[in-house]
Structures are given as C-alpha cells and as structure tokens.
Amino acid sequence: MQHQYLDILVLNETRLDETISNSEISIDKYTLVRNDRTRHGGGVAMYIRNSINFNLRNDLHDEALEFLCVILDKIEFLGIENNIIGDLNCNMSASIADNNTKHLLELSESYQYTQLIKEPTRVTNSSSTLIDLFLTNEPNNFTSAGVIVL
C-alpha cells in the first residue's frame, strides 16, 4: 500500500483471530477495523486512511453475519454514496444465475448499482467464480477496483 494511493482497503477471508493483535498487522497512516470469525477461515477487515473520518456502526453487529458497516464523512459528495463490498456468495460471472444471484442482480438494477470487480475472485483447478463484490451507486467516484492476490 505504500506504493499505491488507497483511501480504503477492504479484505475478505482474513483468517484473523484474537491471537493476532492490531499492532501486528497495522499499516502506517491507516486505521484498522476488523470483524474476526470465531471458527476456521473467514473474517473481514478494512484499512481506512487516517485522514478519512468515519464511524463504525457496532449497533448493526450480528453474530450470525460476518460484515463491517462504517459511515464515511465525505461532505464533498453531493449525493449519498452507498457501497456494498464483500463475499456475498452470489456468482456474478455465472452464465446461469441461481435465485440469490438473480435477486441481487434485480436489486442492483433497481437501485442503479454497478459491480466494479470484473475478474473472478475465487479460482480453483475446476472453476472460477466472482463472489467477492463491490457494488456502488457512484461508480465514477472510484478510479480502480480489483483483486489483489496474496
């Protein structure tokens, strides 16, 4: 991230737990927000540039769901920007969509959301799927979105 100018980095499948402290994975000039999964795998995290004011919505926390909700203080936007980011387990690259994916596509179209990730996010020897999504109603506010392979 030192060579890229990123305001926010969103991570899925972090596999972090209470044995890994924030200081061990901190990035200079960023605030770490995370929601660890209590069982194998999973977890979500966000690194938010320190110059961006935000509020974490802990009141929306649900033990059964794995997500983070932050409200960004971006007064320069005239409209209300909404972003849905994460592993939604709806394959947006499937030639034949299942019911959940169809519903998500219908909702996205109804609310004029654009899916910014264009390449598969889960690749195996026998398949590839696009299930890690970045949906926004303001696609022109983003210069890039993609997958970083670690």
UniProtKB/TrEMBL annotation:
InterPro entries: Endo/exonu/phosph_ase_sf. The keyword Transferase applies. The keyword Transferase applies. One of its GO terms (molecular function) is RNA-directed DNA polymerase activity. Keywords: Nucleotidyltransferase, RNA-directed DNA polymerase, Transferase. This is RNA-directed DNA polymerase from transposon BS. The lineage of its organism: Eukaryota, Metazoa, Cnidaria, Anthozoa, Octocorallia.
